[in-house]
Structures are given as structure tokens and as C-alpha cells.
Amino acid sequence: MSFGPGRRITIDERSRVTRMMRLVICDRNRILSEALAATLEARDRDITAVATSTAEGCTAAVSHPRPDICVLDPHLPAAEDGLRLIREIRNRCPDLAVVVLSDVSDPAVCAQARKLGIAGFLGKNRSVSQIADALRAIAAGEPVFDPVAPPGAPRPQAPFALTPREEEVLRRIAAGQHTRHMAAEMDIAVSTLRTYVKNLFAKLGVHSRLEAAAIASRADLPGETPAGQLPPEDPQTVLHSA
Questions:
Q1: How many domains does the chain have?
Q2: Rounded to an integer, what distance in angstroms lies between the CA atom of residue 194 and that of residue 232?
Q3: What is the pLDDT of residue 155?
Q4: Is 2's pLDDT higher than 50?
Q5: CA geometry: angle at 33 spanning 200 and 128, to 5°?
Q6: Residue 39's Cα: distance from chain center in Å?
Q7: Which of 16, 140, 178, 216 could crosslink 174 through cysteines, CB 3.0-4.6 Å?
Q8: Which neighbouring-strand residues pair with 200?
Q9: Same domain, yes or no, for 62 and 138?
Q10: The domain containing residue 206 runs over which residues?
Q11: Alpha carbon of 112 to those of 58, 125, 181: distances in Å?
């Protein structure tokens, strides 16, 4: 927000400037980082968010202008890369709050990240509104750390019965593929693909691709994860659509 010369800032405008929260969101899955950033901005007009999917992009984004919080996935593409990035950001910007957004069944990464001085650890099983509320608390100086599975605990098996096609769709959602990309690679109509996604959401009990991707990251799904691709659709639509 800019103010012309000689213009007096009203109480409401001063309050909004104070409450504005600037975020950098870095996730290895580009579609999820952009979708989460777009949804947080749409949900709250006092949030501005920059999305990136690489360590280099994250480093540039936190350098100027200085954000309030950097939310990052520690696996970029490996945990060593994410932890190295946390260390670099903490050294460069000691006043910047770094929040890890990751799988809650990853206790080793959480423990190492806490030693580096992160301000929070949020599980990807949170809803978007819960993530926003946690970030508000962290911006106000309150650490937020979700509980993680004890060391050595096995990764959970998928507690849902999916058809082979639904499993494939879930893997593709986790990889960040968009609707047309999935339909083309699966050699099915877009309308058929959307039916698979809708049925998948119903079985998982989720309402967004972000939630579905979080479940996929915690479940032991068979098969190889396909390559992702940046979608041309609006990120906010991709996040919530079937």
C-alpha cells in the first residue's frame, strides 16, 4: 500500500498495515505451493504470499522485500537440501520466522529443524484455514508445533480401499499434475477423470487436492510417482477442484 505526499494515514489504514502478513511459501511440489499461496491470499486480504519450489527461488524471495514468515517443505528434493536451506535462511535473516510444513510422521526432520531454530512445524494434514490460523499465531510470536509420530514408528498404510485407477489418480495429484495432463496420460476424457477425482475425495473424506496430496504422502501407495507439471489453470481452482 502506498500513500501520496501529504496524505494522512487513517486509523483503519494504519491498523491494516500493522496486520499485513507477508509470506514466502516453498514446496517441492510447485502446484501446491502456488495453490496454497493463492488460497491464503484469497482467504485473507491482509496476507500476501510469494510461491516458489526451489531453494534458489526461496533464498531470493526472502532477501527482498523481507517477509514475516517463510513456510517451507524440508524435502527440496531431499531432507538434506531443506535443512541446509533452513540453516542458510536463519543465518541470513535471524529475525525471519521459518515454519516447516511437512509430513507429521517425519520426526527426525522435525527434530533437526527445531535445533536450527524454526518457529513452527505444521503437518500437511491441516486444512488451509488451520494453516492460516497457525501462521497468524506464529506471526504474533507464539510457536506452533504439531505433534509428530514417535521415532521408529512405521509409516501408515493406506486405510482406504481404492481401485487401481483411483490409486493412479492419487499418485498424480501428489505429483502436482493438473486435470488435462492427468487425463491425457491416462488416455481418458477429462469428464471421466473428474469423476475419478470426485469419488477419490469422497473415499478419503477430503475437499481439496492439497488434503489428498497430504494423505498420499503419508500412505504407502504402490506404483511409481509420475512426473508433475505446472498447470495453466488458476492455482486456487486446482487446489480445491475435482
A1: 2
A2: 17
A3: 54
A4: no
A5: 60
A6: 11
A7: 216
A8: none
A9: yes
A10: 164-240
A11: 20, 21, 37
Which CATH number does the domain housing residue 103 bear? 3.40.50.2300
For residue 47, report the phi and psi dihedrals to the nearest 5 degrees: -115, 130
CB count in 10 Å sphere of residue 223: 10
Contact, 221 vs 171, CB < 8 A? yes
Q: Helices 209-218 and 30-43 sit at what angle, rounded to 10 degrees?
A: 140
Digit-coded pLDDT (tens) for 166-200? 889 988 888 888 889 899 999 999 999 999 999 98
Give the three cell numbers for residue 136. 497468524
Q: How many CB atoms lie within 10 A of CB 43?
A: 13
171, 141: one domain: no
pLDDT (tens digit per residue) in 200-230: 888 887 788 877 877 776 665 655 555 554 4
Task: Give CB contacts under 8 A, 24+ apart, made by 38-46.
Answer: 38/234, 38/235, 38/236, 38/239, 39/128, 39/235, 39/236, 39/239, 39/240, 40/128, 40/131, 40/132, 40/135, 42/236, 43/128, 43/129, 43/132, 44/132, 46/16, 46/19, 46/20, 46/21
Grid cell locating 66: 523481507
Which grid cell is 44? 485473507
Reported as a pLDDT band with limits 50, 70 and 90, residue 17 is: very low
Record the pTM: 0.64
DSSP string, 30-90: HHHHHHHHHHHHHH-TTEEEEEESSHHHHHHHHHSSPPSEEEE-S-SSSHHHHHHHHHHHH
